[in-house]
Design a protein that fits this description.
single chain, 74% helix, 318 residues, mainly alpha
């Protein structure tokens, strides 16, 4: 796997494309192909917009199905689509292969569940900003360079501003869920790399998505029950799955065939800004000047950490 991005796709935030995107990133050409730089960059940005606007739609769906119910619908719909498209081979895998894909699926389910619990309590843009601290910490620790202390300090300054110094303006439970989702996002990056090495193309991702969906199903049923069977709810859940999983996954795969993985990682660091835009346009969640500055600081720290690793040629997380 190439150097992990501090925002290598987002949960709901993250597009499930990361597993296969990460696996393919190492083979991405050093320079974009005939589309030129604008084509693949546009694909990545379109994928990010799709992810975050899908998350915003998911928030509007929560009164109908509950946060856990929305996660269940997203994982189930994504699993069905990926299994039909990828048709992964079930035979010929070792016990270690299956252990890796099961762990990846459970981490994926936990990441999504924690994130949706967060956006049910705090604004989408702020939730993604806090969540991205997990991958950022992973990137800083992996690099082991003194300059990364600067990026860590910049991110912490952003977090301080985000909470106004004490987080009294934000639901502390929502903040805790976002930070926990960030920890799961870091684990997601690690297991996506391992899964990508053990399974061809997107097979591991499809199997992991199915594992995550089955693991989360009891939680969704317990919270939402028969509401999950409502046709309108199912339709909206499928739309969330397409926008937050299937469409970004496809766009990122296309982009990584023409875009250096390092550029891809830096572009993905813009996720908090895209989330703030989606929250403003769909959920009418405006950020204060201090909160916008906090988001900018975290984005800057993410980009700096990625560029530091790329410049040194650090290996990816294994």
């Amino acid at each position: 796997m190439t150097t992990p991005s501090p925002a290598t796709s987002s949960p709901a935030t993250s597009s499930p494309a990361v597993a296969s995107s990460s696996a393919l990133a190492g083979s991405a050409p050093g320079t974009p192909h005939r589309w030129g730089s604008l084509g693949p960059v546009g694909l990545v940005l379109a994928g990010g917009v799709s992810v975050q606007f899908g998350a915003a739609i998911a928030v509007t769906l929560m009164p109908r199905a509950g946060a856990l119910g929305v996660v269940t619908l997203r994982l189930l719909a994504s699993a069905v689509v990926l299994l039909l498209v990828c048709r992964p081979r079930l035979r010929g895998h070792s016990r270690t292969d299956w252990g890796t894909v099961v762990a990846f699926g459970l981490v994926m389910a936990a990441m999504n569940g924690l994130f949706y619990q967060s956006v049910d309590r705090i604004p989408l843009g702020l939730a993604v900003t806090l969540e991205v601290l997990g991958p950022l910490a992973l990137s800083v620790l992996a690099s082991r360079r003194a300059v990364n202390a600067v990026w860590a300090a910049l991110a912490l300054a952003g977090v301080f501003l985000l909470g106004g110094g004490n987080f009294h303006g934000l639901d502390p439970v929502g903040v805790a869920f976002a930070l926990a989702a960030g920890g799961m996002w870091a684990a997601y990056i690690v297991f996506s790399a391992r899964t990508g090495r053990r399974f061809p193309q997107a097979d591991g991702l499809a199997l992991a998505m199915a594992v995550g969906a089955l693991a989360f199903l009891p939680l969704g049923v317990a919270e939402s029950g028969a509401r999950l069977l409502d046709p309108v709810t199912i339709g909206l859940g499928a739309a969330v799955a397409m926008m937050s999983s299937v469409l970004p996954y496809t766009l990122e795969l296309l982009a990584l065939r023409r875009l250096p993985a390092s550029t891809f990682a830096i572009l993905m660091s813009l996720e908090p800004a895209l989330a703030a835009l989606a929250g403003f346009l769909i959920l009418h969640q405006a950020l204060s000047v201090l909160q916008a500055l906090a988001v900018a600081l975290v984005i800057g720290a993410s980009m700096g950490a990625v560029r530091t690793q790329v410049g040194r040629g650090d290996p990816g997380i294994s």
